[in-house]
Write a structure and sequence with these properties.
This protein is of the alpha/beta class. It has one domain (10-377): Glycosidases (TIM Barrel, Alpha-Beta Barrel), CATH 3.20.20. Helices cover 37% and strands 14% of the residues. It is built from eleven helices and 13 strands. The protein has helices at residues 10-15, 28-46, 114-126, 149-164, 175-182, 194-204, 233-250, 273-277, 292-309, 326-342, 369-377; strands spanning 72-74, 77-80, 83-85, 88-92, 96-98, 101-103, 131-134, 168-172, 210-214, 255-257, 285-289, 313-318, 345-350. The strands form three sheets. The chain has an eight-stranded parallel sheet, with helices on one face. It has a three-stranded antiparallel sheet with strand order 1-2-3, with no helix packed on it. A two-stranded antiparallel ribbon has the order 5-6. Helix 10 (326-342) links the parallel strand 12 and strand 13 (345-350). Helix 3 runs parallel beside helix 4 (149-164) and helix 10 (326-342) runs parallel beside helix 11 (369-377). The longest helix is centred in the N-terminal third of the chain and has 19 residues, at 28-46.
C-alpha cells in the first residue's frame, strides 16, 4: 500500500485489475547492464553489501513449545504438534509512532522497533490470532542490502516473541522483487536472489515458529502492458521453480508458498497458476482476495484444484477499508470468513492489524469494535 509500498496503496488495490501501463519493450541485455551500473552506484554511495556477511548474526530462538515441531501438511490440512492447525491471522504493516515521527515499513531499520513488535503481538493475542505475516520490512533499506543486521535482528525478535505466545510467522520475501521493481529493473530473473534466499532459509531452517516462506505475490499479468511484467507464463513459473528449490535446499523443514497470486479469474492474464501451485516445493495454493471476482470466481476455482491435488488452499491476504463504516466492514469480514469455510480455506489472513484510524486505512483494532469482534468471534476454537 503506497506509503506502505507502491503496490499496497488502497486506491491502487481497488483499481489493480483495471490499470495497465503502456507497454515498453526493453532488451534484456540492456536492462541487465543498466541494473549492474545502478546497483554499483547505489552500493558505492550507501555502503550496502550484496554478499552475505562474513560474520554470523545470531539465529532466532527455536523455543516454540521447547521443541523442533515444524508445521507440516497432512492431506490438505496444516498440522502442529500432531494436531490439525488452522492458521488465522493478519499482516503486520507498521503504523509506529516513535519520538513524534510516524514510521511505516522503514521502522524495521530501528532497534527500538521491538516495542512495536510487542504491541502487535499483544493485539494479536487479544484478537485470538495465531499467525502474523510481516510485510514491507525492507522499505527502509537500499537495494541490495539483503543482510541488514537491524532488520534481521528485529525479525529474529518477532519470531522469538511469537514463539513465546504459541504463534507462527509467515516470512514474506516479496521485498526482493519489490525493491528491484522500484529500480525499474526486470524483477523476475530468479538468479538475482538465489544467494540471499539461501542465506535467509539457512538462518531460519531450525526455527519452529516459522509457518512458511512466501516468495512474492500480486504478480502483474504476463499479457499486461506493464513493462516490468513477467516476460511469459513460463518465465514466471521458472521464477517460482528456482526460488522454491533454493529455499527447500537450504531449509527442508518449512513449507513454501508462491505468495498470494491475483488475477486468476482473468483467463487471458497469462499466469499459469496450476503449474506454479504444482511445483514440487510449492506446498500451498495461495491467493489474495480483494474483488467480487476473487470471491465468486477465483475462490471456488482454486478450492476445486487444491482438493484434487491435495494442497492446502490459503487466503494469504484480504481486507476492507475503515471508510466502509464499521457495521458494513464487519459484515464484509464475516462474509469472507463464511466463504473461507464454504471453500475449505485452511488459512485466513487479513490486511492489516494495527492502531491506525482513518477512512482509507485497512487496519483492524479495538477502535473498530464491530470488525474487531467479528475477527475474535471467527477465531479457531
Amino acid at each position: 500500500m503506497l506509503g506502505r509500498c507502491f503496490r499496497c496503496n488502497p486506491q491502487w488495490r481497488r483499481s489493480k485489475y483495471k490499470n495497465d501501463k503502456a507497454q515498453v519493450r526493453i532488451g534484456r541485455r540492456a536492462i541487465t547492464a543498466l541494473f549492474t551500473i545502478v546497483l554499483s552506484v547505489l552500493c558505492a554511495v550507501s555502503g550496502c553489501s550484496t554478499s552475505p556477511p562474513t560474520h554470523t548474526i545470531s539465529s532466532s530462538s527455536t523455543s516454540l513449545a521447547q521443541t523442533k515441531a515444524y508445521i507440516s501438511i497432512s492431506g490438505q490440512n496444516f498440522v502442529s504438534h500432531n494436531k490439525p492447525f488452522h492458521p488465522y491471522g493478519s499482516t503486520m504493516y507498521p503504523h509506529w509512532n516513535s519520538n513524534g515521527v510516524l514510521h511505516r515499513g522503514g521502522g524495521w531499520t530501528y532497534t527500538a522497533f521491538k516495542s512495536y513488535i510487542d504491541q502487535i503481538i499483544s493485539m494479536a493475542q487479544q484478537a485470538h490470532l495465531n499467525t502474523i505475516r510481516p510485510t514491507n520490512f525492507f522499505d527502509g533499506t537500499t537495494y541490495g542490502d539483503w543482510y541488514n543486521a537491524t532488520v534481521w535482528s528485529n525479525m529474529d525478535y518477532l519470531l522469538q516473541t511469537a514463539a513465546r505466545h504459541g504463534m507462527y510467522v509467515v516470512l514474506d520475501l516479496s521485498f526482493f522483487r519489490d525493491k528491484t521493481l522500484k529500480l525499474g529493473v526486470y524483477p523476475y530473473d530468479p538468479n538475482r536472489y538465489t544467494a540471499a534466499f539461501s542465506w535467509v532459509a539457512s538462518r531460519y531452517a531450525k526455527d519452529s515458529a516459522l509457518l512458511n516462506y512466501a516468495i512474492a505475490g500480486e504478480v502483474a499479468c504476463p499479457t499486461s502492458g506493464d513493462p516490468l511484467r513477467p516476460t511469459s507464463a513460463q518465465a514466471l513459473t521458472n521464477y517460482y521453480r528456482v526460488l522454491s528449490d533454493t529455499l527447500h535446499a537450504a531449509d527442508p523443514n518449512h513449507l513454501i508458498s508462491s505468495g498470494g497470486l491475483s488475477h486468476l479469474n482473468q483467463a487471458n492474464c497469462g499466469i499459469d497458476w496450476k503449474s506454479i501451485f504444482s511445483l514440487p516445493h510449492i506446498n500451498l495454493a495461495a491467493i489474495h482476495v480483494y474483488s467480487d471476482n476473487d470471491r465468486n470466481i477465483t475462490m471456488p476455482m482454486v478450492t476445486g484444484w487444491a482438493a484434487s491435488h491435495g494442497k492446502p488452499f490459503t487466503v494469504e491476504e484480504f481486507g476492507f477499508q475503515q471508510g466502509d463504516g464499521d457495521a458494513k466492514r464487519s459484515a464484509e469480514f464475516q462474509n469472507m470468513y463464511d466463504l473461507g469455510r464454504q471453500y475449505s480455506v485452511k488459512a485466513m489472513i487479513f490486511w492489516n492489524l494495527g492502531p491506525e484510524i482513518g477512512s482509507s486505512s485497512y487496519e483492524v483494532n479495538p477502535n473498530t469494535p464491530l470488525t474487531w469482534n467479528t475477527v475474535i468471534q471467527n477465531a479457531p476454537q
